[in-house]
Structures are given as structure tokens and as C-alpha cells.
Amino acid sequence: MMNFPVLSVITFTPIVAAMIILLLPSQRKNEARAVALTAASFALLLALWVYLQYLTQNMTGYQFTEKYDWLPMLGISLHFGVDGISAPLVLLTGVVMFTGVLISWGDDHPHVMAGIQDRPREFFAFLFILAWGVLGVFVSLDLFMLFFFYEIAVFPMYLLIVIWGWNVTREYAAMKLTLYLFIGSVIALVGVLVMYWAHAENTGVLTFDMLKIETAGFPATFQIIWFLPVFLGFAVLGGIWPFHNWSPDGHVAAPTAVSMFHAGVLMKLGAFAALRVGIMLLPEGAKYWQWLVMLFAAIAVVYGAYIAFVQMDFKYMVGFSSVSHMGLVMLGFSTLNRDGLLGSGLQMFSHGVMTALFFAVVGMIYDRAHTRQIPELGGMSKVMPFATVGFIIGGLVSMGMPLFSGFIAEFPIFLGVWNEQWLVAVICSISIIITAAYIMRNIRQVFFGEIPENLKGHIGDITVLDKVAITTLCLFMILIGLYPSMMAPMVDRGVTYILNILYPGGS
Amino acid sequence: MFSSTMFASILPEILILILGMLVLIVEPFWKEEQRRNVGWLTAGGLFLSMIISLLFGQPGEPTATLGGMVRFDWLGFFFKQLFMFAGAATALLLMDNEKVGRRGESYLLLLASLLGMNLMAVSSNLVMLYLAIETTSIPLYVLAGFMVGDDKSAEAGFKYLLFGVLTSTIMLYGFSLVFGFSGTTDLYQLAQMYRVGDLSPLTAFAVLALILVGIGFKVSIVPFHFWAPDVYEGAPTPVAGFLSTASKAAGFAVLVRLFFVAFPGADLARSWTITLAILSAITMTLGNMLALPQTNIKRLLAFSSVAHAGYALIGVVAFTKLGAASVVFYLAAYILTNLLAFGIAMAFSKVTGFEDLKDYAGMSRRNPGLALMMLAAFLSLTGMPPFGGFVAKVIVFAAGVQAGYVWLVVVGIINSMIGVYYYLNALKYVYLYRMPNEDEENHPIPLTRPYAIALVILAVGVVLIGVVFAPWFGWSEAAALNLF
Predict the structure, then answer these.
(1) Contact between chains at A73 and B406 (C-beta distance less than 8 A)
(2) pTM (predicted TM-score)
(3) Distance (Å, rounded) from C-alpha B386 to C-alpha B391?
(4) How many other CB atoms are found less than 10 A from the CB of residue A483?
(5) What letter would DSSP give residue B125?
């Protein structure tokens, strides 16, 4: 069983499914959906198996590794492996894939028009190409392949938003998003290539293998010069201030499942790549620029929360809250200590699940009420109680309430920041208050009170598939909140690995 | 006198010649409506020639054959295979073109031009090189203006002829100066003379500049690019596709052999690499900038092909083994991709008669498969994985960074972003916009068999070269090693 190439199977399941879906005749909508759901469940189960193996076998470092030579002349190989940081993210991708397919299944009720009715075949195919890229980045240990998958994760977003998005802003938002992400990634590419040649010059070995480049020991000035392009290039996708602008626009314009992917997984992709390539390959650069990253992150945390607070559009609110929460992830990175990094690792998973839930619920409401303006909504708890409970749980996670995963994630981040710079921790804690304010306000306005006259009678409950999706997402948030040892120890082992790189010899 | 090596070194050309004669003989016996089948014959014959030359025509150690006129090495071999592949695809795409496909001459001219390209890739003597270039160009002048009675086509043919003749004359002048200064026309002897110091760097540089005019025209480097959009727009689309791929690659084959082999040496190399670096930056930038406002798909592809010449030049500028390999790889990926793009434009305009981007609205509903292939082609041109264009671009950029041309790579990257905009913009018409009455299901775009075969092969090729890139890179590297 140990030789079973489980990571390759997980990674290539979506693309195989996408190919199968594309080969179906276009009228076969339900068959396309069924293939998508099967593939997503399969990937989710395997990801869960990998996760539990890693957790229960007390594994450390990179496990489930596979290596196949791809272009030996330039040292490119298909090198897969997961550690304590990336295993939860692979699981997260599986969860979001699974729930995303459920949400997009569709509802033929005449007033509803939920899910994807127009060309579901292409929709699921593009969505799965996106998932392929995302999974590839999380498991790649080869810099070239990481970049390869990273780009794959970028372009389907354009099509998904532009074809199935909100028709008011989709063209603008899709192009903005693609250009931002592409610019970020190619700037990082220059840094990657420079690292590659510098490593080749030092050691005489041509390789893109990150485990080898980690030990290259680049000179400090080199690291200081190249850290910013590499880190920020990837962090654009993580929604770091001041390059976050594409993100809320993209969230709002995207169809529900794509928003879930986008905020739930794709932004983690940016943060993860920034950590994996920026901080872990250029640790001296990370130490030198620590203050700048911390500054950007702190601004994102507070500013994102404030902008979310003043939004009248429900989806924009969730979009800006993502900027704020991803700022917390970056803030954790910037501490470069155990608590902060541990918190970031947990926050990536916690926020991914939470924001996927938020967007799912927002999408369900919009599909039925045809408006997202918060003042025009009300009383949703009467027609969709299940979604209401889900949103409240998500809200509690978002506020960082104890017993939910948000607390487990945010508390260590603030602890870590306090150790580095107490003032930043104090300022950033304002965001928790603002977050609590806008979440509570929205829960009251949207879910309670009276249903507006014009909506009465038009709105029905969500479908069974939607409920399954909400349950799945809530389950993870509650379980991790109640039993942090389901995730914290393995993330901690991943952090130990990073700390060994940051402070060789221990400190 | 006659040896098997000599025979093997020009095996593909012999086969093409035989095929051309066969086309000439067969064509008059076929009735008017059957004549499009000459396309099957041409494509099949070229495919067979590829296989035969793969089996019996593989080079070993680089050798000079035919009295030093021809160099028999992997570089030439690889390029020849590429050209013949492009020729076969073009023959298939020609078949259902109303005004061109039913006439046997068009296939004959295609083969004649292909013969010239094959010789361009292997010429190691300036005289041979000039003859090869002219053999390539003259049939293409005719093909570009092939649609009698069509003003645009006539203009295209004439424009191509005038610029072509002008630039090739300047190049010939350069060749004559080379002979005057050195007394030899053999590229490899020139290199020898240059090494021992018989040729001063300044003279060599001046001569190279003249030669660059001719080659710059072929590969459409700015400022010798301005024929491209008009000619591509006016010429029959398959011919435009052929011009922008095989003909351009042939120019690059000459460029690398000439610059890497005949005029090496550190001090000279420095001056011409800088010249080429500047030209490359200008070519990319201008090509992309001018592609931005285009509304006609052929003009868009014309300017994008100018830009791509600029990207490929980065590999030449790097002047390293990896640089040379990256150029060869880039061209392989580019030929497949651009032929695919032109093929789609052809298939589309065959059915609809339109060439403007706005007419592509609703295409993804009219023929989802064709739209998907267009997606592959355009994303490959953008440089997105998992398509060939991505790997090609990364390797070219890697070569640039290795050689210390980080600024040029940054220019290339900025240009790629501009590319993202206009390629995605084209895809927006295909996937997002609807036809005026939203009745796409009543306007399907059926593909005839030659189109379907050619396009599917090209699309699969674009994906294969982008995913399983090791063998392609291996061949590119083997080809590039012959330059050093």
C-alpha cells in the first residue's frame, strides 16, 4: 500500500474527469454532473485518507513522495509529496471540490435557477482543470512543476467567471483577475529562474527540486534582492494588500462554486506558494523583509475588515472579509515563529472551509431572492433555516469564537505576532471587533426580521444537495474547533520543518 | 563520388521532388471536382517522406556533403521534419479552400517552397543558402497572390514580392561582401578564418547587419515586419498560416546557423547579441502593442506572430547551448500552435465567410469542439500550461536569465501580459458573446474531414508538447549541439 502513488491519483483525478466530461455529448447534463460528483468524492476520500494517515502515523517531513523524471536535462521532475502544512490543504481542496459540485448541481424550480444550467459540461470541465492545478501546486516539490500547476490554476478562472459569472461585472472582473494573477506569477517566475541558475552555479547541478534548492545557501544579498519579487508575486493570489484589489471583484463576479474555489482554495494557493517558495527557499530574505510583510498584512487585516463592514452588497462583504482573513494568514507568516506559522497553517484550512460556506449560502440566497443588497433582504431563517444555521456557524468561525476552528487558528497567530511586535497585535485585534460587528449585523438583517413584501412567496428552501454541502463544511469547522488535536499537531510538525530552515542549528 | 551519406543528406528533398512530379502528373487526369484530392496525396506523401527520412535519413556525426554545399546534421534534420509536418498540415487545410484547394498548382507551389525551406535548414554555403531562400520565396509570392480577381490577395502577393526582393537583394549584397573580404562562401571556413583573425570584427558586423535585413524579413523582425499583417490578411489563409510558421522557422534555422556557426567569437558576439537583444525587445513590444487594437483575426495573428519572433530571438540572444535548444523548441511549439490557430480561422471562415473577431460570437455554442481547440491554440500562444507555448516560453526565458539578460526577460514578461489581454479578449467572443438572435443551434459549424484531421492532430500536438516535453526538448538539444 505504501507504494501506491496516492498523490498522483488525487492530482490527476480531476483532469481525467474533465476529459471524460468533455467527451460526453453536450445534452447529457446530468451525466456530466454525475461524473463530476463521482470524481470529486473519490478525490475527497483519498485526500482524507492521506490526511488521516499523516495524522495518525505521526509522520514528519515530506511523505507519500513520488518522483518521476520529467525533463532530466534541465532537472525537472514530477516530484510529489505532502507535509503537515500541505496535507490539510489537499484535504481542503477535496472538500471544496465536493461541495462545489453539489452546489452547482442545479435546481429546476422555475423561480430558482440555482446552480449551473447553461452548459454544465464545460463548467465542470473547467472547474476540474482548475482543481487539477490547485492540487498540483499543493503536492509539488519541484519548482518548475509547481509553477506549471500554478498557471493552470489561473486561466480557467477567467473562463469560469466570464461565461457563468454575474453579467454586470464579469468581463471587467475576469480580465482584472487574470491580469493581476498572471503579472504576479510571471514576476515570481523571474525570481524562480534566477534561483535555479544561482543554485546550478553554486553546486553544478541543474535541478528544480525544492528540497535541494532549500539547502543551496544563497548569499544574503541575493536572498534580500529576490525575496520581494518571489514572495509578493505569489502573494498577489493570496490577496495581500496593496495587491488585493482583484479579489473582491473576482469573488463577486464569479458563480457560486467558483467563488467557493476562489476564496476557499485559490487564495490559499497564493499564500502557500509564497510560503513554500518565498520564505522557505529564501529564509534570509524573509527575515530582512519581515517588517514589510507584517505591515502589508496588518493593513490588509484591519482595512479589509473595515471595508467589509461598510459594504451593502452581501457578496462584496464576504469578499472583503476574505481579504481580512487572508491578511491574518500573511500576518502569521510574517512572524516567522512557531506560534504564528502554526496559526497560519490552521487559518488557511479554517478560512477555506468557512469562506466556502459563506459563498455557498450567499449564492443560495441570491439564486432565490435575485438580490444581494443587504437592506433588501430579510427573514431568510423562515424559508431556509438550514442555510441560516450554516451561516451562523460560519460567522462564529469568522469572529474567532472558541469551540470553532477560527479560534484555534487566530489565537496562535495573535500570540505569535505579540511575541514579535505587540503593537501590531493590538492594532490587528481591532479587526476581530469589526468582524463581529458586521457578521452580527448581517445575520440580524438578512436572516431574521420580516421577509420583504416583494420576496414573499417567491423564496423556497434550499435543496437536499445544498444541505449536504453545508453539513460537510460545518462538520469540519466544528470538529477542529472541538478537537484541535485533529489538525494542530500535524501542522506543528510542518512548522518544525520550516523553522529548521529558518533557524538552522535551532533557536 | 556518390555515397550513401550524400544520398541520405538530401533524402527528404528527393522525396519532395518525386512527390511534386507525381502531383504534376496526376493532376491533369483528375476531373475538376476531384482535384482537391491532390491535397490528400500531398499530405500523405509528405507524411510518408517524414517516416522514410526518419528511418533512413538520420544523420550521424555532422558532415559536409555535396561539395560542402549541405551540412548533414541533427539541426537540419529536425527542422526538415518540422517543415514537412507543417507542409502536410497546410496541404490538408488548403483542400477545402474554395479558390485554392481545387487547383493542383497550389500544392505544387507548396512543395516547391518546402523544398527550398529544407535546403535553407541545411545550407552551409552562402551560394546554396541564397538559392534556397529564393526557392522558398518565389513560390510563396505566387501563393500569396493566388486568388485571381481578389484585390486583397493580389495586393498581398505584390507586396510580399516587392519587400521580399528588396530585402533579399540587400542580403545578397552582404553575401558578396563576405566573399570579397574573405574569398570564401563556405560558412564553416568563414568561422575558421574569423578565428585566426583574417576577418576584422567590424567588417563582419557590418556584413552581418546587411544579411540580417534579409533574414529579418523572413522571420518578421521589426523593422522588417510591416509586410506581415497585409500579406497575412490578403493571402489565402492556409498560405498565411504557412508563411507565419514554416517560413518563419526556416528563417530562424538560417539565423542560428549563420550567427552561431559562421560568426562566433566573443567580441563580435557581444556586439551582435546586443543588437539582436534590442531588436528582440522592440519586436515583442511593437508586435504586441499593434495586436491590441486588431479586430480581424488574421491581422491579430499576424501581429502576434511578429511578437513571437521577438520571444524566440531571446534564445538566439542568449548565445548558449540552452539558448539554441530553446529556440528550436520554441519554434516547434510555435509552428503547431499557430498552424492550429490559422486552421481554426480557416475552418470558421470557410463556413461563415467572416474573419472579424466579432463574428466569432457564439462560436462555443455553434461548435464546442472547435471552440475548445481555439482555446488550446490561444492559451498556448499566451503561454499557459498545459500547452506547448508555456514550456517553450519558460525555457526561452530560462536561457535568457542564464545568459544574464534579465532585462530582456522582464521585457518579454511584460509583453506576455499584454498578450494575455488580447488573446483572452478573442476568447471572450468565442465563449461569452452570443449571436445577434441567440439562435446558435441553427448555425452549426460543420468541419470537413481534412480540417478535422489536421486540427485534431495539431491540437493533440500542442498538448503533447506542453505536457510530455522531455522528448521534444531532447531533440531540440541534440539539434542545438550541432551548432557548437
Answers:
(1) no
(2) 0.90
(3) 8
(4) 11
(5) B
